[in-house]
Every structure is written in C-alpha cells, then in structure tokens.
Amino acid sequence: MTGFPLTWLYAPGDRPHVVAKALASGADVVVIDLEDAVATDRKVYARSATAELLSEPQPVPVHVRVNALTTPWAEADLAAIAPSPGLSGLRLPKVSAPADVVHVARLTTPSLPLYALLETALAIEQAHSVATAHPALRGIAIGEADLRADLGVRDDAGLDWSRSRVVVAARAAGLPPPTQSVHPDTRDLEGLTASCIHGRTLGFLGRAAIHPRQLPVIERVYLPTEREIEEAETIIKAAATTEGAQALPDGTFIDAAVVATAQRTLSLAKRT
User: Fold this and answer.
1) Fewer beta carbons within 10 angstroms: which end of the chain, N or C?
2) CA angle, corner 200, sides to 195 and 204, nearest 5?
3) DSSP three-state, residue 128
4) What pTM was estimated for this model as a whole?
C-alpha cells in the first residue's frame, strides 16, 4: 500500500476471531470497533481483548474506534488502547466540537493520529473547526447512519450537502479527502458500486467496509481506470515539454490544476 488507503474494514472488538480474519483480508486499514458493534455487557471484554492484541505490532495498520466521549467507557478505552505499540490511529465517534478532539489529544501522545467522525447536524456545521482543532487530527469522515437519523433524512440524496461540506472542510484544513461511510447491506454489491461511484464524484477517497466481500468493489471503483491512467500520462508528458497552459491535440485544455490531478491519478495507480 502507498500513502492512499482506500479500504478500511471494521471488525467488532469483542470477536477476536473476526478481527483475525480482518487482519488477513487485504484491507488497507483494519478498524477494531469498541463502539456500536459491541453490546454494553461486552464493552470491557472488547477493550481488554483489543489491548492484548495491540500489545504487539500488527501486519497492517490498525485503528480503534473507541466509545464516544459522552459514554462511561471512553476514558478507560483511551487509557487502555492509546499506548498500544500495535495501534496506528484512533477513530473518535460522535465528535461534535473542536474541544472533543483537543480533549483526546491531551490524553494521548502527540504522535498518535486521530480521526474524527461527524455524526450530527451540529458536527457538520462545525466541520472545518473540528478539522483544524489539533495537529494530531489526521482526518475527518461522516457517520452516516447517525447523521441520517439526526436529520430525519430518508432519501440518500438528502445527505449529499453534508457530504460535500465535509469534503470541502477536509481540503480547506489540509487533510486527506474523507473516506465514505459504510454501505450497510453487505450483499448489495451492485448498490455499493453505484454508491462508491457517486462518492468518488463528490470528492471522497476510499470507503469503510463491514465485510471483506466489499473490499474489492471499493478498490475497483476508487482506483483509476486504464483510460484515466492513459489520459494522466498524456497530460504529464505534455506538461513536461511545454510550460504554461496549453491544449492537447484532442482539444483538452491543461494547466497547473489539471497537471496536479493527473499526478494524483498516477500516484493512486502505483498502489501495491
């Protein structure tokens, strides 16, 4: 994998055998979930099992989604998980204000990457403030199930304004493009494909998944096609021979912005 993770596979922290399968799934990042996927009476076990696993380095980057700061489990999650040698990042659910990120950053080491999940209307309204809250924050994303419930949105298109706002906020803050939220129907690969295509047009990069069968679909959609690679190579070659804006033989106008997009396309194409 290069610096462009495209697949983020969730696995419940109270099911170590599922986590083990996730680690061997080929996902770019495995996210061990201590929050929504774990029942109340399993929270303590999920935390201890995850801390034990992460006491050693892992073969792929592993993030942990801790419980929300408003819950009675959050502080203990952070104390047990944050120092782990096998931990690559913390995902913070239900972040509603910059202060939430700052609070977690104070409780963890400066080098530990934090990722904020925006899941309410208030969080979306403060997306840029959250994105710039602390240097430890390395990304923002939407938790669409909770946001949908908060907004009372039934049609998927009703989330597009919020999605675009978070994409813009991430870019304005100098963060990577957000990853898409999970597609909840693990058997609906056709719907997943269409949703990923739509997400890509909105500016997302990659997607969270809840089943390994979703990974190839996400990667296929988000990786450049052969035609996109050929077009990018043509643009880069043309830019190398002539300075300034120009038009290609097929009429395509290229300038610095077009070249930057082509460079990003080729970088994605070089993923291993």
Assistant:
1) C
2) 105
3) helix
4) 0.91
Residue 175 near residue 138 (C-beta atoms within 8 A): yes
pLDDT band at 126 (very low <50, low <70, confident <90, very high): very high
> What does the pLDDT look like over 254-263, one tens digit per residue?
767 777 777 8
What is the model's pLDDT at position 249?
A: 65
Tens digit of each residue's pLDDT (9 = 90 or more) over 80-113: 999 999 999 999 999 999 999 999 999 999 899 9
Count of beta carbons in the 10 Å neighbourhood of residue 266: 15
* Residue 178 confidence (pLDDT) above 70: yes
- Rounded-to-integer distance, Cα 53 and Cα 86, Å: 8
Full set of structural domains in the chain with CATH: 7-222 (3.20.20.60), 226-269 (no CATH)
Nearest to 128 by CA among 168, 94, 163, 85: 168
Give the number of other Cβ atoms within 10 Å of residue 156's Cβ: 13
Q: What percent of the chain has pLDDT over 70?
A: 94
Spatial separation of the C-alpha atoms in residues 175 and 139, rounded to whole Å: 6
CB-based contact 87:54 (threshold 8 Å): yes
> What are the distances in angstroms from CA 63 to CA 81, 107, 109, 182?
10, 17, 15, 16
**Contact call for residues 137 and 116 (beta carbons, < 8 A):** yes
**CA Rg value for the chain:** 20
Residue 144, token pair as written in the block: 């669409």
- The answer to whether the beta carbons of residues 248 and 234 sit under 8 Å apart is yes
Handedness of CA 103, 89, 184, 49 (dihedral sign): negative
Report the DSSP beta bridge partners of residue 8. 29, 208
